[in-house]
Amino acid sequence: MSLELRGISKSFGALLANDAIDLKVETGEIHAILGENGAGKSTLMNIVYGLVAPDSGEILVDDVVKHIKEPSDALASGIGMVHQHFMLVPVFTVAENIVLGHEKSGFAGILDLNEARERIKKVSDQFNFDVNPDDLIEGLPVGVQQRVEIIRALIYDAKVLILDEPTAVLTPQETDDLLKIMKQLKEDGTSIIFITHKLREVKAVADRITIIRRGKVVGTASPDASQNELASLMVGREVELAPDKGAHTIGDVVLKVEGLTIRDSVGRALVNNVNFEVKAGEVLAIAGVQGNGQSEVARSMVNLEEHVEGSIILDGSEVIGKSVRESLHAGIAFVPESRELDGLIGSMAIAENLILDLHDLPPYAKGIQMSPSVVLSEAEKRKDEFDIRLQSVNDPVSSLSGGNKQKVVLARELSRPVKLLVASQPTRGLDVGSIEFVHKRILEERDAGRAVLLFSTELDEVLALADRIAVMYRGEILAIVPSGVTAQELGLLMAGVVHA
Amino acid sequence: MKALSASERRRRRSLLVMATLAILSTLIFGLLQKSGQNVTYGFTLDKEWVLIQQWVISSRTSSLLFGVISLLASAAAFLQFRAGRTIGLASGIGSAGIMMSFLSWAAAGKFIPFTGLLQGALLLSVPLIFGSMAGVLSERSGVVNIAIEGQLLAGAFVSGVVASLTHSTFLGLVVAPLAGCLISTLLAVFAINFAIDQIILGFVLNVLVYGITDFLYKKLLIPYQSTWNSGPTLSAIKIPLLWKIPIIGPILFDQSIIVYLMYGVIFFINFSLFKTKWGLRTRAVGEHPTAADSVGIKVNRLRFMNVMIAGLVAGLGGAYFTVGGVGSFNKEMTAGKGFIALAALIFGRWTPWGAVSAALLFGFADNLQSVLGIIGTPIPSEFMLMVPYLATVIAVTGFVGRVRAPAADGTPYKRGESH
């Protein structure tokens, strides 16, 4: 089955998310749609799936115009979708999730799941999915949940399968499995639309690549194109994928973490006896798949976790037991995982966000009174230093783009005297240009002789920045390896595989 | 140390509470009580088949006996807990033992109509059960229903007035659900279509119904009482044979039609919620509306429908106050029952049977208070009046611990706005 989009446009207020997009996916091909975060990929696919109504344009299935107004219309036309955020009810079983919306009832309206169970088993066996229809979704690993979504699409006869950023939540091994599954599906005659911003995956499976930038199709490419070519098409200018690591001198131990154990509110250990140290002038990256305890370790560095045992020694003095404020003032710069939730106060002005940490101290305040003029002039200064693109420092910080928000966070955190920079997923959701800036800035800190503790789930980022890499798996550090490690080895470690 | 899961910790906590209460009641009601007074339990109400007429026992012995039973049950529950099994049955027996130990002490030298105590408890639970069933319907599909109180009151008012004007209990019963539905439709329109904060909205609706009924009561029902506010009431219907079963017969099967309708509502909601297509969809929109939408379920339409049905159920419960009770409407006569129903819903973890059990418990505490007040006890009746509410607070906070509401409860759904 082929799928064609003609002149699809959609705007949200002043933002033109999709601008006259044309696209054709042929039968049995894997068609990658490559674009940065915010380029309009997801909006386009939500239009195809009937979740968003386009302003103009038409959708053709096998050269026939289809009016897709609801997800049910898309399903009926043979279009299935695996969403970035899974559309599964966590407290339901696999079978219950799959019949939802297409239920069969027997005597007295009693729900009949047997037919669904049979079909799930059949598809699961065909593709070696290892999915049990009676398992509860919330107990399944993310990779398996994704397979449940794929099974659902197949059971409802999807001939075109849309995968929206399917590898974002997977381990490198699960990603490889998924890429294999995609090839298998293709051989079975299913067309696949593969939405991603990861160049390596695109090159591995795609038959054709359409590149979208700022809501427009800016070109098509074949998978033979080099990663640099693809990246510059995606961003619209030449980009350096790997930043230059300058010379640096390693100094004394700045941070020493010993026996760090963190529990949740019911006493389960999320982080178990973690030990590491970071020296001045080096980047220690803590790599791992999301949810293996890294977030908790990061938060514990500034005492944001509640149930912590062990010791965290910064430059000879204990951090645990201090208040968050004291920890920050002891010389830690902290870039939290979520800038929107934990890093910034969205409705407050950019200038105010820039001095949140020091707002009650001179020169920003005298006694109980703040000095707005000092705050403003300081904001102007930092705006230039960190290249924050804004209209006015008095605008709410929520009006900024992701990259500029992250620059505000960095500008604030790096303006105190800093011994240690703790950066948690510093480039998540950023465009390539901002990623470049953040990476450069992190390396500058390292070269200036500060210790950097980087938490990242992105293999490429870890390999590009780190001097040493600690891999976390299920709350423990599996190994600490030097930066020369290959992506494959690192991937295996992140999946919990340790060589003897 | 082996880390305990949340539910294990909750079980351990309730075990500790039960064991402490068992020890205290054995001590205070049993060992420290002066001997010499008897307590009499009566077990017959009417002309049912007699298993046992009454039971006379020394108050001290009885308190001790039940205290020891509760201690044994606590020990059994502890062993079950150690073995990793559930402690439901043992803690049920234990709690009943503590209750009986207290009762034997409080009623020393008196007569307790035991069957009557339970029958009254069931009656007092009726509005709570209807209310909590309305809560189940609405909250399982993701709409917080604070307005149960208002739906009960509207049902009570309208059914009372209609029955009074038409001299028909049947018509009173028919209009009560419609009145409840009117209120819940307001809730649905504002909560679902306009995404207004559901807590505030529910509260405002309650105040609105209080205001309207107060006004009409003063201006209409008091001046024209003989035509507007002196309706007929439903009489109890004995179910042939079943009502003759000793003890439980008169409790369950000698009731008015509203109670029999309630049995039907409970079974029907429980069955539908867990066994039918409608139930699966309802739970899905309450847990993950985006997922439901993506498979073609009309989330807001289903929610709207469920909130309206919830109003029907609560409104019918309201009829219990007037047509099912005294016949005439009285100012604010629901007296917070809708809120207690809400507590029962939470205590029962948003499941129909859980909510029914909680409602029965609250009803029992309420009736115990009035029975002990009538026969006269060492405890002041003002204190006893407090007990059902105290039980509610303890039940909802300490005993259940934190329970998980439907994930999307209280969150309006708009396509493309949430994940």
Helix share bin of chain B: 55-70%
Strand content of chain A: 25-35%
| Biggest interchain interface, per-side counts | A-B, 34 and 29 residues
CATH topology category name of the largest domain in chain A:
Rossmann fold
Percentage of residues assigned to helices of chain A: 25-40%
CATH architecture of the largest domain in chain A: 3-Layer(aba) Sandwich
Please provide a written account of the structure.
The complex is a heterodimer of chains A (500) and B (419). Chain A is of the alpha/beta class. Chain A has two domains: 233 residues, Rossmann fold (3-Layer(aba) Sandwich), CATH 3.40.50.300; 157 residues, Rossmann fold (3-Layer(aba) Sandwich). Chain A is 32% helix and 26% strand. Chain A has a six-stranded mixed sheet with strand order 6-7-8-3-9-10, sandwiched between helices. In chain A, helix 4 crosses helix 5. The longest helix of chain A has 16 residues. The model of chain A has no long low-confidence stretch (mean pLDDT 89). Chain B has 419 residues and is mostly helical. Chain B folds into two domains: 104 residues, no CATH class; 284 residues, ABC transporter involved in vitamin B12 uptake, BtuC, CATH 1.10.3470. Chain B has 17 helices and five strands. Chain B has a three-stranded mixed sheet with strand order 2-1-3. In chain B, strands 4-5 form a two-stranded antiparallel ribbon. In chain B, helix 16 packs antiparallel against helix 17. The longest helix of chain B has 27 residues. Chain B is globular. The mean pLDDT of chain B is 87. Classes of the chains: A alpha/beta (500), B mainly alpha (419). At the A-B interface, helix 2 and helix 3 of A face helix 11 and helix 12 of B.
